[in-house]
Write a structure and sequence with these properties.
Blueprint lengths: L2 H24 L5 H36 L1
Organism: Pedobacter caeni
Protein name: YtxH-like protein
């Protein structure tokens, strides 16, 4: 597959995904789906922060061992 074809395919896939998400969120009358998506995203961010803190601690420990 040529580079241009991959780029176009990626753009089309992204546009389709965005349209599907917009359709799902806009058709939700009582906001329940929006709350579920928002909660899921917040949980994802929290877990990412925790993993980042753990990784930073591991890097600091490794640097301290190398310097010692």
């Amino acid at each position: 597959m040529k580079k241009e074809t991959k780029i176009i395919a990626g753009l089309l896939a992204g546009a389709a995904l965005g349209a599907a998400i917009a359709l799902i969120l806009s058709s939700d009358k009582d906001g329940e789906m929006k709350e579920k998506v928002s909660d899921w995203f917040c949980d994802l961010l929290d877990s990412s922060k925790e993993k980042l803190v753990d990784a930073a601690g591991h890097v600091k420990d490794t640097i301290a061992k190398v310097r010692a």
